[in-house]
Amino acid sequence: MSGPLLSPQEEALLRRDWRIFIALTFLFSFGFAVYSGVFQNFLRDVMRADEVGLGMLESLREIPGLLAAVTAGTLVAFAESRIAALGLALGAVGIAMTGFMGSFGGLVGITVFWSIGFHLWSTMQNAITLTLAKGSEGGRHLGRMSAVGAIATIAGLGFAYALRRAWPGPPPYNLFFGVAGFTILISAGLCSMLSHHAAGGARQPIVLRKEYGLYYLLIFLEGCRRQIFSIFATFALILVYKAPVGPMLLLQFINSILIAVTAPQMGKLVDRIGERKPLTIYACGLILVFIGYASYRSIGTLYALYLIDNILFSFGVGFNTYLHRIVRPSELTPSLAMGVTMNHIAAVTVPYFGALLWKSTGNYQTPFWVGVGIAAISLVATQFLPNHVVEPVPA
Question: Tell me, what CATH number does 67's domain have?
Answer without folding.
Answer: 1.20.1250.20
